[in-house]
Please model this.
Amino acid sequence: MIYLHVHPSQHEMQVTECIPEQYAYMCDLKRTLDATGHCVLEMPSGTGKTVSLLSLIVSYQQFYPTKRKLIYCSRTVPEIEKALAELKRLMEYRQECAETDEEKEKERNFYGIGLTSRKNLCIHPEVSKEKKGVVVDARCRDLTNAAVCEKGRQNPGSVELCDWHEELGKREPGNLIPPGVYTLADVLEYGRDNKVCPYFLVRRMMPFVDVVIYSFHYLLDPKVAEQVSKELSKDAIVVFDEAHNIDNVCIESLSIDLTRPMLDSAARSVGRLGDKIEEIKKTDASKLQDEYAKLVEGLQDAADNEDAFMSNPVLPEDLLKEAIPGNIRKAEHFIAFLKRFVEYLKACAPDLFLQETPLSFLQHLKDITYIERRPLRFCAERLQSLVRTLELDRLDEVHSLQKVATFATLVATYERGFLLILEPFETDNATVPNPIFHFTCLDPSIAIKPVFERFSSVVITSGTISPLDMYPKMLQFTPVVQESYSMTLTRNSFLPLVITRGSDQVAISSRFEVRNDPAVVRNFGSILIEYSKIVPDGIVAFFPSYLYMESIVAAWNDMGILNEVWKHKLIFVETPDANETSIALENYRRACDNGRGAVLLSVARGKVSEGIDFDHNYGRAVIMFGVPYQYTESRILKARLEYLRDAYRIRESEFLGFDAMRNAAQCVGRVLRGKTDWGLMVFADKRFARADKRAKLPRWINQYITETASNLSTDMAITLSKLFMRTISQNPNENQTGISLWTIEDIEKAQAQQKEQQAIEAERRRDDDVMDEDDDEYGNGGFDDEVLANMDLDV
Ligand code: SF4
Model:
């Protein structure tokens, strides 16, 4: 591991040792931060993207007196934990390197923390045992909401409180934990040792820390962002790491699916709320009157947001700051309103597929039920107020109703960029009706717009984010820097190969028309057999979908191909079930470790393709069977493609090609996790041979696909692979210094060259300017203004 020590003085950086890609990456990052703009950067896998990013930004923070907070977003909890561990090591190193006492003190007073859900951070002995996240959230809220806490503190023992939450409340805000960098495991340990709640500790420390690392949703999903990230300062630096799927996260955060059981449960919850209102009317009617008075005054959310049961799902600039409309102010009126709305949704479950815009849905709703758009917009807010007034417990039981209210608010707020799709059957082959309401967001730029508007520097980065210009188009922003880095290697540590045909010269492809052709299936099978013979330890194979994988594996079984593979390696299969997959993965790793070797059959866009590394012996070859196009018959995808075409002039084929190639790159990128690692990347489909397809791959992969390697038959590919493995095992050539590893001298040389280049550029620009000025004079006819003014032009 290489650590970088960067001092971003006014004009240059000092780095002690790094690899060339890291240096270029940091230069571009610094340019972005200096310009307080946004950027899209693609850095090859395994070249230390996270450490470069953290090194530069932390140096930036420590150097400038206006400490800009770093908000670092990653996809999964293991990735968050990895980034925190990296930051911790970096800060230890910085402390070692600090020269003066003042510098040492500065490094010691640095705060870095990570946030994840209550489910991962709860230490309450009962609550933490719950398996579902929503249940943990609900039970925690029962113990920590403002009303319960007040009651419990006034009258100890009258209600159950959480001791860990109470203990935290006694501490001074901003000083809940000593300075330092804490991984999620560290915070849990600190919480247990000091008897304080780790979850609320992190939440309350967020305004005071230098770096916070959490998941994309905490910034992109307005329901969560409103509660968690509202107070983060505007000059913060936001980083979205592993952002190759950021458009999908944006879309998911504003889309809702409502199923029939959910609507039934929502209807039951409405009934329960109605009963509760009747009960309260008899015992404590003043509560409802108080709430009514507050709503009249427009005090929608005076309570502390920390324990809010739900937040407004719409984006900040779309929020209405008015009083809640009169016809839903009274609790019983609101209940009647909800009842009508849920009944309407239940009745909208025809046998036919239906697709409509929010506007036409609202019109139809009004015609049938007289429900107007304005009260519908306030549904989420009104429900939150009611739940708080009624002091409901077990809030997980009103989860479906909460979804319905969120849907109501969203559908009544947005006219453009959303579509309602009602599908009578859950899947295409289903015969029993199970209607699903998809309220789907089609425009990823809607969710990310407030992030770009609010924060001055947003960095979008990943190992595979090509083609880069697609992201600014889809997310509607203008980057100051947009760069993809090549990979410097002293020896080729990976070999990308495109197999277009089998040894029998039959073209192979996962195209719909030929994908089940026995010749194609057999050729795919023989690729796996041949590679399982020659590749040591682990092979990971990816298919475009579960359905396709199932049919191929069944066919391979019948053809005896699996038996053949078994002779050389064990076979494990990824399934949609997360637990099953993690068991398969564990055993796969065990088989790779003990020398038996294994093949893991998995799917693009599945769990394995995202965030799981197959470094060293866990992945010596990765085979991509077919091009992982999305299922184009999906109505949601069709609607999105139509929208992209109309709104942003992105053609269907352009988007589908981009999406397929980014997923293929993501899959094959799993095999290489560092410059000392090595592996084979096999693209098995004749369509990968096309130059336009390959151009969509990241530059660092594409640069190593030679003309010969882009159109191979299985036997040719095997010959090349054998040769590659022989070379890689015989020529260790660890000394990468000067080429793929720069010492301080190499860096200085590069800096000097860079300066020289800049001077030449500046000189050239000056010359151009002089020429332009000359041109201007000539443009005026060769006379200056004074001469022209004195000329007698009246001829
Ligand atoms: S306050 Fe913390 S420890 Fe207590 S239940 Fe909630 S998450 Fe768990």
